[in-house]
């Protein structure tokens, strides 16, 4: 019998053949893992690209959101190394229709973002964002401050009837700035108040709250006080309540059911924004790609922003704020001197000039956390 035949009869060949197949098990496993990693990365990249494209294609761009440079406070400081200032922004040298500078990395610059909520139910938003005069008014105004270390987010609500100086138009309710001169005049009015630059601008149509809230599967809001809506007679009970889109919209709109009108409406809006922020940062949302995609596509058509707040800039800012949670968001209303009457008989909110100056100084020094702590203003009070 030949040697080959003997080996075959003893099963040795089968052992050799099996050993050949097992010669590089570790390499094979690594190749499989590498292939899987590439597929996951490609899928994630495609997903993020899709999200960015959905946002950039649907959100409206405010081409000229800032006043002329001669009418603005001086820039806070030069941009850090590697960041080029861009025209028309808080760090730029000249005004005009251009992209805003990207958000700075922690240790760079603080950011001020003026957020306007519109409840016009009309087609005048286009005029307002273009800088034209219109009958558009801002029903909600928030100055969002993000400190340089990106440790917190501060949101200062400005009462819509706050009696202030509108540049070129004398004293009037702050929300009328939008009607007189569109977004650029609103930015100039807020910058003049605090003597501090606004870096980015966003206008949100309240109607977007319906789709956004429903895309999240509802939002649980800690309702500050019970009331019955004057519009649809729905009863909102104090405490944690899960609101769908329709009732979330009515919740942030309502003011006629309260004796203190806009003061309570502002508190309700703060409660909703806080709940919305918490829901968006929850694992239930962040770990669900379908839900994240639905949120972005539901809200994007109802947002108008300066060109610097594109998807790439927002993604960069989100990365910088990755350690911020709902408890790190401080919301409060700009202190006022109560309600009064203007010379022409309008019901107005009287400004507290001391508070305005102190907050302006805190914004300039990036020390708003100290102001909030020293004045007992956290949690929307």
Q: State the helical fraction.
A: 40-55%
Strand content: 15-25%
Largest sheet, if any? 7 strands, mixed
Quaternary structure state of the chains depicted: single chain
Instruction: Classify the secondary structure makeup into a structural class.
Output: alpha+beta
Q: Give the neighbour order of strands across the main sheet.
A: 1-12-7-2-3-4-13
Shape: globular
* Count of individual helical segments: 13
First and last CA, distance: 98 Å
At a glance:
By secondary structure, the protein is α+β, with helices and mostly antiparallel strands. It is 41% helix and 19% strand. Strand 5 and strand 6 form a beta hairpin.
Give the SSE map:
Elements: H1 3-10, H2 12-21, H3 25-58, E1 60-62, E2 111-118, H4 125-130, E3 140-146, E4 153-158, E5 163-166, E6 170-173, H5 176-194, E7 200-205, H6 208-215, E8 219-223, E9 227-228, E10 235-236, E11 239-243, H7 245-253, H8 262-280, H9 283-286, H10 289-299, E12 303-306, H11 311-320, E13 329-333, E14 336-341, E15 347-351, H12 353-364, H13 368-374
Parallel strand pairs: 1-12, 2-7, 4-13
Antiparallel strand pairs: 2-3, 3-4, 5-6, 7-12, 8-11, 9-10, 14-15
Question: How would you explain this protein's 3D organization?
Answer:
The protein has 13 helices and 15 strands. The protein is of the alpha+beta class and 381 residues long. The protein has a seven-stranded mixed β-sheet, sandwiched between helices. α6 packs across α7, α7 packs antiparallel against α8 and α12 (353-364) runs antiparallel to α13. Residues 78-105 and 121-125 have low confidence and may be disordered.
């Amino acid at each position: 019998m030949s040697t080959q035949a003997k080996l075959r009869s003893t099963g040795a060949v089968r052992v050799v053949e099996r050993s050949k197949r097992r010669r590089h098990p570790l390499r094979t496993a690594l190749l499989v893992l590498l292939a899987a990693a590439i597929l996951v990365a490609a899928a994630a990249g495609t997903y993020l690209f899709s999200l960015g494209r959905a946002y950039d294609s649907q959100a409206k761009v405010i081409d000229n959101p800032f006043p002329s440079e001669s009418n603005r406070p001086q820039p806070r400081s030069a941009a850090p190394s590697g960041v080029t200032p861009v025209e028309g922004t808080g760090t730029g040298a000249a005004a005009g229709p251009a992209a805003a500078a990207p958000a700075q990395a922690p240790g760079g610059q603080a950011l001020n973002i003026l957020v306007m909520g519109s409840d016009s139910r009309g087609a005048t938003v286009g005029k307002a964002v273009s800088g034209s005069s219109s009958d558009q008014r801002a029903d909600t105004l928030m100055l969002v401050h993000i400190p340089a270390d990106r440790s917190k987010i501060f949101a200062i609500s400005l009462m819509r009837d706050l009696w202030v100086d509108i540049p070129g138009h004398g004293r009037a309710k702050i929300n009328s700035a939008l009607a007189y001169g569109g977004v650029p005049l609103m930015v100039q009015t807020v910058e003049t108040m605090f003597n501090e630059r606004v870096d980015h601008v966003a206008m949100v149509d309240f109607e977007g709250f319906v789709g956004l809230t429903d895309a999240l599967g509802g939002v649980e809001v800690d309702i500050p006080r019970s009331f019955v809506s004057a519009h649809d007679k729905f009863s909102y009970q104090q405490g944690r309540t899960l609101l769908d889109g329709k009732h979330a919209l009515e919740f942030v709109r309502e003011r006629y059911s309260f004796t203190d009108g806009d003061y309570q409406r502002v508190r309700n809006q703060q409660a909703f924004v806080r709940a919305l922020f918490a829901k968006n940062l929850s694992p239930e949302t962040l770990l669900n790609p379908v839900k994240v995609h639905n949120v972005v596509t539901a809200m994007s058509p109802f947002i108008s922003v300066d060109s610097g707040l594109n998807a790439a800039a927002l993604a960069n800012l989100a990365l910088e704020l990755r350690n911020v949670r709902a408890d790190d968001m401080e919301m409060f209303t700009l202190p006022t001197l109560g309600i009064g009457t203007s010379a022409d008989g309008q019901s107005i909110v009287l400004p507290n000039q001391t508070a305005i100056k102190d907050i302006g100084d805190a914004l300039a020094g990036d020390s708003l956390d100290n102001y909030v702590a020293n004045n007992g203003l956290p949690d929307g009070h």
